[in-house]
Amino acid sequence: MSIGTFTLRPLDPLKDAELLHGWVTHPKAAFWMMQDAKLQDVEREYMRIAAHEHHHAYLGLHDGRPAFLMEKYDPRYVELAGLYDPEPGDVGMHFLVAPTDRPVHGFTRAVITAVMAELFADPRTRRVVVEPDVSNKAVHALNEAVGFVPAREIDKPEKRALLSFCTREQFEAARGVAV
C-alpha cells in the first residue's frame, strides 16, 4: 500500500505562520515547546530561522498538501554547539507531523523516512543527529525504526535530550536497501 508522495519546499515564515501556529500549539505537539505561542511568536521564530545561515525550515507536502514541518541545522552552530563533538557531514534534524483527526496507519513513519531520504540525498550528509526529549518515547521508536542509535543523554537549556545518530548505512539498512 502506497501512502502517497512527499515533497518539501522552503518554509515561508509569513505565509505559512498561521498554518504552523495551529500545528505547534496543538496538544500533540507538546514536545515542540510552543504550546502557548501566539501567531506573532511563530512568525518571529521562523523569521529568525530563515535569517540564520545554519538553520533551515521546510514545509513538507503530502500529495501536494501541507502535512509536516522539517528543520535541518548544522549542529556545530545550532542546537548542539558545545554539547558533543561533531563530525564532518553531521546534519541536525527536527520534524513535526501536522495534527489530524483522521490518522493514517504508518504515516508518521513514512514522513520520517522521507525526511531522512531528503537529508541523505545531499552527498555531504554522512550522519543525521537528533536530540529529542528523553521522555518522548514515541519519537524514540520512530527514530530507531529508521536507523538511529542513541548515544547518551545530554542537558540542553530547555530539556534533557537523548542524543542519537544515524549514518547513511544505518538508514539504508533500516529501509532494507542493500548498501
How would you characterize the overall build of this protein?
- This protein is α+β, with helices and mostly antiparallel strands and 179 residues long.
- It has helices at 17-24, 39-51, 107-120, 137-145, 168-175; strands at 6-10, 55-62, 65-73, 90-97, 127-130, 149-155, 160-167.
- It is built from five helices and seven strands.
- It has a seven-stranded mixed sheet, with helices on both faces.
- Helix 1 crosses helix 2.
- The protein is globular.
- Gap between N and C termini: 24 Å
Mean pLDDT: 92
Report the order of strands and helices: EHHEEEHEHEEH
Estimated radius of gyration: 16 Å
Strand content: 25-35%
Question: Which bin fits the share of residues in helices?
Answer: 25-40%
Structural class: alpha+beta
